[in-house]
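May I ask for a protein sequence together with how it folds?
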Amino acid sequence: MDNLIAIVAAILYLLSIATIVPGLSGQTGIKAKAVFVSAALALLFHAWLLSDLILHGSGQNLSMLNVASLISFIISLVMSIAMFKTRLWFLLPVVYSFSAINLSAATWLPGTFITHLENDPKLMVHISFALFSYSTLSIGALYALQLAWLDYKLKKKKGLSINPNMPPLLMVERQLFKIILIGNLLLTGTLITGIFFIGDMFAQGKAHKGVLSFIAWIVYSILLWGHYQRGWRGRKVTWFAVAGATLLTLAYFGSRFVREIILR
């Protein structure tokens, strides 16, 4: 049954992508309602699949691929809701592609990492902060890459300014720093709950998560300070945003990738 749900969700994500791409390559309008309907159905099946994969009998199966699929779901949900307010057409194909890939991997490359969050509400609070901070800052990294791409295309005078499906450069920049500010506040919450709710956060075997997350927090804090106090923009902003997201990826998935995928 899970295989069928995964296939349907992946097809619906791909249908959303197929509806968006023609408008990015030309001047044709994008049918936002059609994209939203197919994406909403994909998210519905994705959520159904996650409930089957994670709510594993007794406890919750938070394997690396299940968590990656959950993060993809959160990002796709947020971006889909925002599509009517903001022109996200350049980012949505990337986001939906990762969702389709991650849910397929979680289905056909199953892993097991059983936890019992119902017995430890403090741990659930910490994990919630971690999931939403990583999802938000991953969106920030995508915005930063979009900003760099738009800036490059405009400098090359590719005529993006007249494509109605592409967002204005300054609007993307404003949204980018709002997202990073929110993400960094959530990351602050992740670190604080980790210190107070998880006694062995910096114990051997776990220290890299806390250290890398703290370094990422410093990177994002410097980026926000540099923008609001020194007027940083352009390529420097992109490098900081991508570096922060990379550090968090290594913190959250690095050791588990080795244990659950390479050493299986």
